[in-house]
Design goal:
262 residues; MetI-like fold; 11 helices; disordered C terminus
């Protein structure tokens, strides 16, 4: 019994810290540990969120932001995955030649490119998609490249020796072998997309979670500002866990270490 309680306590341990964090968030401004003008109590933030939910504005902001994230991320996936497979599998020499340039581009802070995106795509939706695309494209490309490179060449040779054609090798050998890395890249790309959402919605937006944060800052509506930050973190976490669940259920051939049973 004690052993089971100990195991349960270990599983719940991360949630204790979450409860402690939210508890401190509520208590610190209330008792004067933090200035409530700058850090409002959690209850005030939730009250503000409830008002926005009741009038429907919160759902509008979330849906608009999700649309921008998914479109930018979708473009990154559509371009990054095929390019990673081509460079990693069929053109490794070209990939080696382009590697320094790709590394350089990936190291450029997306925020510093905002003026360039504005010039090229304007302050409309195209500029927002380009910011999210740039942030999420590179982790998707690099993890796909690495996943293809890690596929055992012996498996490919064996498949070819049995007369298997290129498309079958791709779908039966290369794609399954690189799938774990691909999902990792998509999850990192999704995280990056949400991190740059605020910057993207600075480009002439009039709705969305990033706009909500900026507008709240301009009008000194601090509870609404914290609500926007909390909403972005919460939505991003839900999508990340959804991708993790999808990965576990789709990639059933992943390596596992069997436990020792008595």
């Amino acid at each position: 019994m004690l052993k089971r309680l100990y195991q349960l306590n270990n599983k719940l341990l991360p949630y204790y810290f979450i409860i402690l964090f939210f508890g401190l968030w509520q208590v610190a401004p209330t008792i004067g540990w933090a200035n409530p003008k700058f850090i409002p109590p959690l209850s005030q933030v939730l009250e503000t969120g409830w008002k926005l939910i009741l009038n429907g504005d919160m759902f509008v902001h979330i849906s608009v932001s999700l649309e921008r994230v998914f479109i930018g991320l979708f473009i990154a996936i559509v371009i990054g995955l095929p390019l990673g497979f081509i460079l990693g599998g069929w053109l490794p020499g070209v990939a080696k030649f382009l590697q320094p340039l790709m590394n350089l581009c990936a190291q450029i802070n997306t925020m510093t490119l905002l003026p360039l995106f504005i010039i090229l795509f304007g302050v409309g939706e195209g500029g927002k998609y380009s910011v999210i695309f740039w942030a999420s494209f590179w982790p998707i490309l690099f993890t796909t490249l690495e996943g293809v490179r890690q596929v055992d060449p012996l498996l490919i040779k064996c498949a070819r020796s049995m007369g298997v054609n290129g498309f079958t090798i791709f779908f039966k050998v290369i794609l399954p072998g690189a799938a774990l890395q691909i999902f990792t890249g998509i999850r990192i790309g999704t995280t990056m997309a949400f991190m740059l959402l605020i910057a993207a919605e600075f480009l002439g937006a009039n709705m969305g979670l990033g706009w909500l944060i900026r507008n709240s800052e301009d009008n000194w509506q601090i509870p609404r500002l914290f609500l926007g930050l909390f909403s972005i973190a919460l939505v991003g976490m839900i999508i990340n866990y959804s991708l993790e669940w999808l990965e576990k259920n789709l990639i059933t051939w992943r390596d596992t270490t069997p436990g020792i049973t008595n």
